[in-house]
Amino acid sequence: MLFPLSLLVFTIYPFTNVWAVVVSRNLTLTVPSSPPAGKQIVDGNYQSYSIEFSYMLDYAGNLSNPNTFSSKLLQNLKDISGAYPIVRAGGTTQNRAVWVQNQTVALIQKFGSNPDQPSSLSIGPLWLESFKTFPKGIQYIFGLSFYDGDYGLQQTLLEAIPAVKELGSSLYAFEIGNEVDGWPGGSRRPANYTVQSYVDQWLMFAKAIGNATNTQGQPLFQAAAFEAPRHLGDTSLWNAESILRDGIAKTGLVKTISDHDYMGSNCPARTQIATLEANLLNHTHMTSIAYYHDYLGNYSVSQGTKYVLGETNSISCQGQLNVSDVFGAALWAVDYVLYMSSLNVSRLYFHAGTPYRYSAWQPIAIGDSPAHVKALYYSNLFTATAFAAGNKQVSVLVNETFFTAYAVYDAGVGREEEKRKGGGDKRLTGLVLVNLQLWNSTMDANKRPYTSVKLPKGCEGGKVRRLTSPGAETGDGMTFAGRSVALNGEYVGKEAVESIGGSEIKIAASEAILVSF
Fold first, then answer.
1. Per-residue exposure over 277-303, b if at least 16 CB sit within 10 Å of its own CB, e if not
2. How many angstroms separate the CA atoms of 266 and 282, rounded?
3. Predicted confidence (pLDDT) per residue in 143-179, tens digit
4. Which residues contact residue 451 at a Cβ distance below 8 angstroms, ignoring those fewer than 6 apart?
């Protein structure tokens, strides 16, 4: 654990005295002694990462020049939660990659009109060094290309065979193709390419990989990786339910099924510009999107397959400036992770790329901007603390548009099936409060409104860690438990942990609180 008792520093809220504040609302919290039966159990690395395939070299470096900044940030999370995040290397650029066996450099890439991503790239044997530099114990999802026909299969095998050899036990899964649902009628697949066509071709590729790598029959694949589902109930639709009905998991090769999602769009074809208040600091908007994953997660689990969000973040097409890279995005991420963990969504992979606005950190210098953490990383520290040691179950306590609360429980001992049904010795380990009311740093800090939350009996002595900032619209001044993260990945400042003396706790607008027991 990152927070042994010897390090506890009992302080008040660093920006103002929390007992002499403007209380705009009083709320009484009811907390059951155990979660409802059937809740999934989440790991300490529930919140994991997806790194754009072409930027893996930036994030990880190579054996002669490893990216120690990225490694330190991953180590921070492991020190807190007890588990390293799983790292997916994938995304749009995995579809564009071509393996060149005699290429003498790791990566050759060309950029077109989009400065965020290369329009073409080739990789060679040295590329795999980037999967050996992160701390030992990290596992990877390796994104493979999915070109059509015999050429496509041979290219996929050229990528998969050395990956199995070089990654060894650190290979968590392969992912064949990214967002294939958008391909029919384009340059990659004909218009009559259906969900069943995909399942048949995917199984052919997966079996060929197994035969070529001596991993036959192993559940070594994360299937689907489809774009955000927005329609349900029709088996011709591209989603987890359809591919399961079409038999993708019957051969035992599927480890997990993945969909992607975002809270809004920054893509050229967008019809509405995303804002903090409408798209991120709005729990109702988030749950309207989560509805589809609730359904698909439940269906997948009923078929014996885990369901994940294999690529997700705030605003699609690499995030939006002053929305995805400010503190409000960190608050959204806490709410999002806690809510999704209460459903049958077994893991979230937050997407990142070197110049992307929504990345948890920028891995290398870009011009005058050094490598540094961004808003999302502070939320990652928060949720890693909430899920420390894993074996957690989450229950929603308050489900309002601008205020949410969650209870986090240790699932106890016993078999997972028994714990899901309500057995085992469960206990409350934490409460999470998220105040999504918009507060900007330009406003009068003395007038920042607080909500006073009355906690149930038995919460006295809980330890409080705040995720806070001068305002939701700024990327400056963010802290978790009173500390920030320096340019070398180390913490700055002493840890600020409050002790609940009575039965009430106050939380400011645009702030999140973790109460640990």
1. bebbbbbebbbebbebbbbbbbbbbeb
2. 18
3. 999 999 999 999 999 999 999 999 999 999 999 999 9
4. 23, 24, 25, 26, 27, 403, 435, 506, 507
How far apart are the C-alpha atoms of 326 and 315, rounded to whole Å? Answer: 12
Interatomic CA distance for residues 199 and 242, integer angstroms: 10
From CA 438, how far away is CA 509, in angstroms rounded? 6
193-225 pLDDT tens trace: 999 999 999 999 999 999 999 999 999 999 999
CA distance 167 to 143: 13
Specify the residue for token string 């893996």: 56
pTM: 0.94
Quickly list DSSP for 402-440. Answer: SEEEEEEEE--SS-HHHHHTT-S--EEEEEEEEE-----
Q: Compute CA distances 33 → 41, 87, 395, whole Å.
A: 17, 35, 11
- The DSSP call for residue 219 is -
Which residue type does 73 have?
A: L
